[in-house]
Amino acid sequence: MTEAATSNDFIREIVRRDVEAGRYGGRVQTRFPPEPNGYLHIGHAKAIVQDFGVAEDFDGVCNLRLDDTNPDTEEAEYVDSIKGDIAWLGYTPGVVVHASDYFSQLYDWAEYLVTQGLAYVDDQDGETISAQRGGFGKPGVESPFRDRTPDENLDLLRRMRAGEFGDGTKCLRAKIDMQAENMWLRDPVMYRIRHAHHHNTGDEWCLYPTYDWAHGQSDAIEGVTHSICTLEFDSHRPLYDWFLANLPLTSEAPHQYEFARLELTHTITSKRRLKKLVEDGVVDGWDDPRMPTLSGMRRRGYPSAAIRDFCTAIGTTRNNSVKAIEEFESFVRRELNRTAQRRMAVLRPLKLVITNWPTDAAGAPLVEHFEVANNPENLADGVRSVAFSGELCIEEDDFAEVPPPKFFRLSPGREVRLRGAYFVTATDVVKDDSGAIVAVNCTYDPATRGGDSPDGRKVKSTMHWVSAPHAVDATVALYERLFTAAAPGERTGEALDDLNPASRTLLTGCKLEAALAEVKPGEVVQFERLGYFAADADAPLVFHRTVGLRDEFAAAQKRQG
User: Fold this and answer.
1) Residue 429: Cβ-neighbour burial (10 angstroms; 0-12, 13-18, 19+)
2) Quick one: DSSP state of residue 166?
3) How do residues 6-56 score in pLDDT, each as one tens digit?
4) What is the DSSP string of 437-480?
5) Which positions are catalytic?
6) Which of 117, 109, 249, 248 is nearest to 176 (CA)?
7) Which of 6, 9, 101, 200 is the most exposed place for a label (fewest CB within 10 A)?
8) What is the CATH number of domain 10-261?
9) Are 219 and 203 in contact (CB under 8 A)?
10) What is the pTM of this model?
């Protein structure tokens, strides 16, 4: 077992004890069983890291099982995205299977329960069945069809399988206890009729199992030892165990364990609400960089290593909690600080003209080149050559004609350092007819080449820049929280009421260092002084801000002592 098996991971402790005791012959097998009815999100990442991580730590295997028991909501597109997300996180399933691969075995076992008097066909509709279940402190009402004979139930079930009945006209229920304190044991539905095309089985079936009937039995068919779920399935475990205990299994039954799911502030993980954001055009799709989906995070530039590290660091417990999104971003920032190369980019450009810049014999401005480190955190990344000329672009807010107090950047008469190049002093401005500043004139000190003064004088500000004649134009997307509230929906009960209408700002005409034209799709670089930005996977010279440079979580921790 690796060091990942930490003291805040009770599931690994359980697995360790089982292995030492020789349970399941010392074998460990897990599975990750998402329903392909949407794209995976950050909450699923925690489950993936847990399921695959446990298997890896104990030399076991983890399968990917697509829980495709509902043909009305599942699509092949979602299956493909799930496979891609798992690979991106760095995991390889032992096998990729579908719950629908087991439909024949599940049906045979259903017939077995019928013959044992442990399941029956009910002619009532879903609304009536739901009402008859009662509630906590309210007794359930037995179905008038509960006492059908096994022969009658078997005949009806086979006719259901043959497609004789319409949707919703009959269902198969387990015969357990309508007075059980656990509501899931009050004769749960096992099969419902759906004459719908299935993405994997086509039109072979019109009888589809419920999650509870398919889940544990699929685990048993595959040989799963430790079935790891999130806490909302804790109340389902007695039903999970009841089904397995009443089937003619040929090996030891799997056992279900539950852990707290991952929730982040300013984030929702409801597939229904995420789908609505997509369908209503609030976001551009499931992979919109503002979405908490793994595909959205990948497009935004979040490193998969940071997601894995975060999920491991928060541990595995049975106590539900909400983690600050700033804590998650600190893991992203830490990983990118180590791996991302540095480049200069100006998002809101203002022209800076060096009036005493030298020219050649023909009167053309000279072009110099400076060597700049690609990543000061990793000198092995080497250096690059950056062009410098007499006409530059700087950020608009790096200049103030009338500087406010404690403004140390460029203003008339003030000297600043241009990153890796020269000291410059602003002299005057150029304005258009409306009075807006369109250019700043300055002079440079040739003796300060490289960014240091031989006479030892100091400046209070270092600014980034881009040579205007060598710059490439780009579009940059800046992102804020998709939801303004830390707990979306807490105020009104509807999370979508807290949508941030200013969650994205698109900047065009940004001026980027020429080397950024060669960045690989999806690659993340640090725009010096501005943050980390990911090159769009499909559109050239479009960048998405991944995260800013300031570690808000670390700052908050420091303030709290």
Assistant:
1) middle
2) -
3) 447 899 999 999 999 999 999 999 999 999 999 999 999 999 999 999 999
4) EEEEEEEEEGGGTTT--TT----S-EE--EEGGG-EEEEEEEE-
5) 35, 261, 271
6) 117
7) 6
8) 3.40.50.620
9) no
10) 0.92
